[in-house]
Amino acid sequence: xxxxxxxxxxxxxxxxxxxxxxxxxxxxxxxxxxxxxxxxxxxxxxxxxxxxxxxxxxxxxxxxxxxxxxxxxxx
Amino acid sequence: xxxxxxxxxxxxxxxxxxxxxxxxxxxxxxxxxxxxxxxxxxxxxxxxxxxxxxxxxxxxxxxxxxxxxxxxxxxxxxxxxxxxxxxxxxxxxxxxxxxxxxxxxxxxxxxxxxxxxxxxxxxxxxxxxxxxxxxxxxxxxxxxxxxxxxxxxxxxxxxxxxxxxxxxxxxxxxxxxxxxxxxxxxxxxxxxxxxxxxxxxxxxxxxxxxxxxxxxxxxxxxxxxxxxxxxxxxxxxxxxxxxxxxxxxxxxxxxxxxxxxxxxxxxxxxxxxxxxxxxxxxxxxxxxxxxxxxxxxxxxxxxxxxxxxxxxxxxxxxxxxxxxxxxxxxxxxxxxxxxxxxxxxxxxxxxxxxxxxxxxxxxxxxxxxxxxxxxxxxxxxxxxxxxxxxxxxxxxxxxxxxxxxxxxxxxxxxxxxxxxxxxxxxxxxxxx
Lengths: 75, 432
Description:
In chain A, 28% of the residues lie in helices and 28% in strands. Chain A is of the alpha+beta class. Chain B is globular, with a radius of gyration of 21 Å.
């Protein structure tokens, strides 16, 4: 699955916790240098943000009209 | 995997648990009060017994669970970490417990001094919480409707408790003020600006997350808490300026906003992708349907004030909103939060040799479903008691006490299983 913002996408909008976190961490492990990934959720994942900051990842979040949070993640 | 839950900043389990375990004792006490006082309790909105029972439910049960839950989930839903969560929890829990009991005793015994003391104790506890949570949220930008809603809900809490304390001091000193309109305003702030706003702010996160529904649309979610708080401010101004039409308009618009939120949540639930209807889903269906009916009754009585004078109209709507609406929604959340926290804390301590029991093992769904049916029976009996108080007030009190005690036993069962597994892990660690 790809998206205009990123080649790699985890659409976790209908997943139960902790699946969104697990799939995001797995996806991050597969990213090549310079690649970005996009996480889609119906909430802001504050615990994940903290882990991303600890691991040296950057992220940018946008709230869409339907309530989806698009979280673009890169290193 | 442990980092998954950002565990290092997670408050200890004891911080929220004390609130969740003791809250049902207060609704149980409300049930016993109905049993003790009997039909006279439901004679009007203003009987000492009904005022005492109402505050046992609103302060002892609702406020207790809501503030306990906030201590736990502020880091998760807002990235805001309370400093010294256990110390805040101990102080707040003691304040809410003593304050709720003194408040009930003050109403029941018609002792102004007890009401004044309750106001001071509750005020001190809530102010301590507001300072702690305000400091935690101060540096957090409002990047989501949930964070914005939480901040505005805390303003609502300050207003509700401030108005309540002022009412208590007014009664204690025998000052002559328009008590009914101030009491209505206090109830509006407590149930709308505080409880309703908090519920919405958390629903934006937990309804899609636990019930696998679509998300709440961004724009209405963003505006709902602000509109509700604005309406409460307008209601307060109309009371100060003695504008009855302004009061009625603010009440009508608040009820319409609440019904809109509840209908939207029901629509989202209809689109859920979870095939099974678990106890949380059922509790929310009951809670939302009750709240819609209660708000529709309030709306009707505001438009045609003669209805509000009908015996039992406002008591019926109040029971629907508090026991049917808020209590059902809170019980539904407790059945997710308590086993989830137990599971999370065990997972943190867990080892490969002892897999963590599932949430359903920690708090079996069947136990929760049976308790939820008891709660629904209590609600039905309480509503019927308004129509036939001589026959049903005492059975309704017993039913509320049984359902509340059952809730506490279910939660204690989850804690017992959590502790058993923890001891098992400790034994394994010693053996290793």
